[in-house]
Amino acid sequence: PASAHHAGFSPIQISSGPDGNIDMESLKSALNEHLAGIMITNPNTLGLFEKRIEEICHLVHEAGALAYMDGANFNAIMGIVRPGDFGADIMHLNLHKTFSTPHGGGGPGSGPIAVSTALEPFLPIPVVVRKKDGVFALDENRPQSIGRMRGFYGNLAVAVRAYTYIQAMGYSGLRQAAENAVLNANYLRHKLSKTFSIPYNGYCMHEFVLSLKEQKKMGVKALDFAKSLIDYSIHPPTIYFPLIVPEAMMIEPTETETKETLDTFVTVMEELNELAASQPDALLKAPHTTPITRMDELTAARQPILS
After folding, report:
1. What angle do CA 190, 191, 197 make, to 5 degrees?
2. What does 242-253 look like in DSSP terms, one character per residue?
3. 77 contact partners, CB below 8 Å, separation of at least 6
4. What SS3 state is found at 39?
5. Cα–Cα distance between 97 and 75 in angstroms, integer?
6. How does pLDDT run across 234-268, given as a tens digit for each residue?
7. CA dist list (Å): 84 to 47, 67, 87, 273
């Protein structure tokens, strides 16, 4: 939204429906001659695949607008679904999430953008092309180009790593990675649903979102669960996102986790839930095993000391 506003557009929020998918009436209310485009994450941040995605893209196109797809969750559908087939005009790929580079700690990241044939003439220059003799070259003769990008090469190391990963995995390997990510997430969802609330508890893709609102009634919040996981040598999942889920904890096991590590995570979460009821202070003061314990993250964010 900040980027759109900076470019002179007025962002409009489209609501989610009770099933966790895009609310079609909310979408239709935004369709008019002033609409420039819609940005969709699919699968969405709740880990659900937008079942009416073709209809959504069709409606957006009928309004004369473009469908921009956020590829943050592409690792759930690679080798299974082609976004261009359901109507995406533009899509960025998070190489650092989907293609082997670890995601976290502020980077490293890389987000190449793919576009439809209709938008190809507008790509920034120079464009990498392959000549008839097979040699690659940089083409700057693009009259309709939006212009030159400052960071043309991007994060080259992440791009090379992604390319190597794709070549090594092949089509069948990439598809299996997506299938394993979905399998792992649904296994965890089923196991954890016995103890925790899952507001949108349907078949998910590679992630799902718990709500720790019941635990908050005991005085223990999602933040306290996240900090406590550190004591068990488990990297805490994303918390308080998406915003429509109170005390949210987004569980995204990825394709690389074994059944043993998934079972360990379930056991630890259940132990923490029992502690929340019997010894809430154990969670409120976590982590206990790190050189630095509970930090004042609000002050750190608002008054950073960077040198």
Report:
1. 75
2. STTSTTEEEE--
3. 42, 43, 49, 83, 178, 205
4. strand
5. 8
6. 999 999 999 999 999 999 998 999 999 999 999 99
7. 20, 10, 5, 43
pLDDT at 103 over 80: no
Cα(182)–Cα(184) distance, rounded to whole angstroms?
6
Query: For residue 184, how many other CB atoms are within 10 A of its CB?
Result: 23
For residue 242, the one-letter residue type is P
Residue linked to tokens 């004369």: 64
**How many Cα atoms within 13 Å fall on the side-chain side of residue 8?**
2
What is the residue-averaged pLDDT of the chain?
94
Q: Is 179 helix (H, G, I), strand (E, B) or coil?
A: helix
CA dist., res. 256 & res. 181, Å (int): 8
Find out whether 36 and 9 touch, Cβ atoms under 8 Å. Answer: yes
Asked if the model's pLDDT at residue 195 lies above 70, the reply is yes
List of residues 6+ apart from 152 with CB closer than 8 A: 124, 126
- DSSP conformational letter for 119: G
Say if residue 124 is preceded by a cis peptide, omega within 30 of 0.
Answer: no
The single residue listed with the structure tokens 């980077």 is 107
Q: Rounded to whole angstroms, how far apart are CA atoms 200 and 197?
A: 9
* Average pLDDT estimate for 205-217: 97
pLDDT tens digits, one per residue of 123-163: 999 999 999 999 999 999 999 999 998 877 778 889 999 99
**Hey, CA dihedral for 13, 104, 111, 202, is it positive or negative?**
negative
